Amino acid sequence: MTTQTLSSPAAAQGCGSGSCQCASAAAQPAVQEVFVNGIALHAPGQRPDTASLRELAYTELLRQQAVSQGLLTRHTGLTTPELGQTEREIIEAMVDQEVITPQPTEDEGRRYYEAHKAQFLVGQALHVRHILFAVTPGVNVQALTVHAERALLELSHKGVAPGRFAQLAAELSNCPSSAQGGDLGWITPDDCAPELATELFHLQHAQTGTGVHPRLFHTRFGFHIIDVLERRSGTQPAYEEVRERIAALLTMQSRARALHQYMSLLVGEAEIEGIALEGADSPLVQ
């Protein structure tokens, strides 16, 4: 039989004394503890941020796996212990032994090369200018997007004045390049954020043409209006020249998938309370 305790309105509001703190204490929600197979990840009353809790949870799963295999001694406390360098090395060695990483075949390497040739171009560069609408804490992203789209629409008109881009960059851009009309000079894929490099250099549509891009670019910094002024195409190396690079990349991707599957199995077999886990985010298995 479940017994439910009901509190009166007076109890929820405190005793009425000016020096009483029971009302404020009652108003604070209880801190939910997080457990992995009955082991708490933090002390009662404390609550690390979600990212830290996930890291602690994955680390505790790996520690318990090492204990079950006799690699580490059993912990007698009720809260997860802090791991030393020796314990971490033991866990890393266990993961290396248990997680099998399939090696890419020659055919897989060649298929990747054919599908991502632009990724291996040597010497390609673009002369670019941009207008950055920075996404900062507290900014109204929807209003910012509308503002950026309005500027992009104006610059996309065929009859736009030649100096209008530089003028809008000086007025609107949150990048220091606004002082130069948004001109970034000649850039290579290594000079810009990965998501911008992909759009400007690696995708099929990015291989030809100049002018204002017909849509906004979204990066970790915000929204960009991009104008490609000039381009250097670069040269395409043969597959044999980049074979080792591709093999390393495919091996890394294969390793990541294998680690994710391994951690997902540990998560599925564990009793976890207070947090949702999905895959392998622990730095011990990166």
Q: Roughly what percent helix?
A: 40-55%
- The appropriate CATH architecture of the domain at 123-232 is Roll
Tell me the radius of gyration: 28 Å
Regarding CATH, which class of the domain at 123-232?
A: Alpha Beta
Strand content: 5-15%
Report the end-to-end length measured between terminal Cα atoms. 48 Å
CATH topology of the domain at 123-232: Chitinase A, domain 3
- Residue stretches low in confidence (pLDDT < 50, at least 5 long) are 1-29, 280-286
Extended strand count: 8
Structural class, by secondary structure, is alpha+beta
The overall pLDDT, averaged over residues, is 84
Please tally the helical runs, counting DSSP H or I stretches of 4 or more residues: 9
- The shape is flat
Assembly status? single chain
SSE sequence, one letter per element: HHEEHHHEHHEHEEEHE
Largest sheet: 5 strands, antiparallel
Could you give the topology of this structure?
Elements: H1 9-13, H2 22-27, E1 35-36, E2 39-40, H3 50-68, H4 85-98, H5 106-115, E3 125-134, H6 141-156, H7 164-172, E4 183-187, H8 194-202, E5 211-212, E6 217-219, E7 222-232, H9 239-269, E8 272-273
Antiparallel strand pairs: 1-2, 1-8, 3-4, 3-7, 5-7, 6-7
